[in-house]
Amino acid sequence: MLEYFDPNKDYGTPPKLSEKRVSLVVDGVSVTVPEGTSILRAAAEVDINIPKLCATDSLEAFGSCRLCAVEIEGRRGYPASCTTPVAEGMVVNTQTQKLAKLRRNVMELYISDHPLDCLTCPSNGDCELQDMAGDVGLREVRYGFDGDNHLAAEKDTSNPYFTFDPSKCIVCSRCVRACSEVQGTFALTIQGRGFESKVSPGQNQAFMDSECVSCGACVQACPTATLMDNSVIEHGQPEHSVVTTCAYCGVGCSFKAEMKGTQVIRMMPYKGGQANQGHSCVKGRFAFGYATHKDRITTPMIRESIDQPWQQVSWEEALQFAADKLSSIQHTYGRGSIGAITSSRCTNEETFLVQKLVRAVFGNNNVDTCARVCHSPTGYGLKMTLGESAGTQTFASVKYADVVMVIGANPTDGHPVFGSQLKKRLREGAKLIVVDPRQIDLVKSPHIQAAHHLKLRPGTNVAFINAMAHIICTEGLHNPSFIAKRCDTEAFKQWQTFISNERHSPENTQDITGIPAEELRQAARLYAKANNGAIYYGLGVTEHSQGSTMVMGIANLAMLTGNVGREGVGVNPLRGQNNVQGSCDMGSFPHELPGYQHVSDNTVRQQFEQVWGVTLDNEPGLRIPNMFDASINGEFKALYCQGEDIAQSDPNTHHVEAALKGLECLIVQDIFLNETAKFAHVFLPGASFLEKNGTFTNAERRISRVRKVMPPLAGKEDWEVTVALAKALGYEMQYNHPSEIMDEIASLTPTFTGVNYEKLDKLGSIQWPCNESAPTGTPIMHTDAFVRGKGWFAITEYVATEERASRKFPLLLTTGRILSQYNVGAQTRRTENVSWHQEDLLEIHPHDAEDRGINEGDWVGIKSRAGETVLRAKITQRVQPGVVYTTFHHPASGANVVTTDNSDWATNCPEYKVTAVQVSKVAKPSNWQQQFQRFTEQQLEFLPTNS
Q1: How many CB atoms neighbour CB 260 within 10 A?
Q2: Over the stretch 64-76, which tens digit does the pLDDT of each residue have?
Q3: Coil, helix or strand for 178?
Q4: Phi-psi region for residue 573, left (φ > 0), alpha (ψ -120 to 50) or beta?
Q5: Helix (H, G, I), strand (E, B), or coil: what is residue 153?
Q6: How many CB atoms lie within 10 A of CB 634?
Q7: pTM of the shown model
């Protein structure tokens, strides 16, 4: 954390991190700051606040408004304090009569072309222009309004979340600079010169027609009402705020929920958030309306069969109904006949309680989480090689990287705030290698172009990573001293012999991967020769039959080049959902207790038994795929599913639906009647992140507070529901607040020993491990030694996936996400984000489309060996010939109807990224889609009218 840093204050210009200190005097006050600091910021750090309009501490100094002019003894004129750096011995005066007159004249010119409608202006009470006019003592405007002005400029209301009113614009360029410097989209510009200057989205387009991604940076930066949240226009200014953590992706952005009573008016990125540093994306910034959407179910419901209407009941009745069902099923079918799935959207504390419920109350280890279908190979692969099941760095570490390799990830869509940090570093000169079958935005966008885009064929990741390592080894580009000091040398020798075999050369693998040998050699040299080389990867690495092998291959590559254990390097998995890391940490896997402690370890298990007062099973339980299979086989009969939509998100939908229909009791706890809940017998209303207290853990192991800003609409936070269900089953969980649950977690989990709410409130967030040796957390892992001791080089033999293109299924389908939507879309589809993505489309290369007579917008059938669905075609060169691509945000799309049950050899993570398909032009929805529509209509009819 920076010195003098108050996240609620604007210091005018960004901090400088120079170790050299400079002392000066401002208005008689001595101040010492890092070299390069502006006078404006130096003054602000001792609470001398110089008026400003064009300056803000999230943007580099611009010096256009001249309101921050100061006098410097020994210098002529009135320099702008924002663009003037401090100097040793400098004496600055910020309040003199000459400066006061100058500032009033400046403000008078601004106000002469600005509407005088403060009382009816939506920013009244929160307007920097208004504040500065008061600060400089402006009392009259001598220039009339009858000449040329901009007061009649038309509003742009095209964006669903904010309004652009150019009549109020002072052309300070803060919005333009925020779009370029912070977001990196460059969607805004200043058009014209002199009096004709104006802010313009794109080429004088409406915001919705421009390249704007609605991150909100421009709205946040605007000092007037020119760019204003529609929610503020409609409801007025908020009157208090609460700092909390976003519940979308794994970046874990901090926000100030700005409130009016219990109503959220807007979500403002919190400058004190160490993951996002005051930035946001369209989802976190604007898409919070789902929390109060009319589709929210706020009353518990029960039914005996999915063919029956729902019956609304009290909490007590619903919980007792559920408890009786679970007890009866266990009595009839045995202890192992029931289980639970924890949520990667719920808090650490809530997830901890669900796995505790399974182990202490159900009496088995049949608990799993959605990480099974996304990042379970990360846990396995990194645990085996480095010794810990998590990423190694902070997000901010990327600003020290010289070469960044992005493998199977799309940061600008999936993790957009980190994507902006990455783009900033690339604009500063870092080199980029993109490894992806598809052309993501990072390959080429304004002021960014990847040095290499390695367009590998889906399913050939391991062949690629082996070839990369082969080049580095055989060309002597590895780091022998790091390997000798930090790694298991015997394992390295065996691996080196394996990897140096000529069969791994890029010349011998290019027919497998599709990557030209010479380009791969150039990319390998670029990464290996970098002072700091960082790898960021996503589901394009893990969701394969060799996902765990690929993760180990990535770790091998980082160790081979010595790129572990310091800033700007590392192995960095980009987690998909907000608490995927936390759900894994909290013991959601059937073989591990919290903190990745194996259930077979007698010493560990006894510690839990002592605290929980029960005897625990020492045998691993069922994984999600095992639960499905056992249900179909009649052996698994009841499932408690908290906050996950397995009917939409898991592969081979036909198989999943058959498994859900085979259950005698499905208990779903969620905020909407999602696709899984349509198969449920008990519906327990959930709470959104705005309605609860707890913590999330993001992709950089950062534990952050989630704070309740409004009462739970259904009357209970999710942790309270689990506690009540345990009680109905005869087991008392004694907690009064989630902080007490965290205290229990800390007492049982070595990496969380030093974590508590008091420390989180003091520090803002903590990156685990946090214990006696690291009382304030661990930003960078493996600094002096690997957690496992010596790093282990794993043999990564390439085994071709069974899912290959053939005459019957000649194309390979891969899937991903889009910026405006989130995961299964249950939240974002209930917001204005649908303005950007109303349906899932199938991207197909022009050559493949032409061969099949497919035109843009045609309905096309996608058929695999698992099933068939129909989507609208989007013809694009983003995908290479032979590859098609779609998203999975809309349930009716049925993307997972065609994905198969192929999975990772070590963890059963599904192979979403490789499905052999045939695509053909069709005229109607698939049979599954028609059946889905009928079933959905029936289930909606079964809802009580006042649910």
Answers
A1: 15
A2: 999 999 999 999 9
A3: helix
A4: beta
A5: coil
A6: 10
A7: 0.95
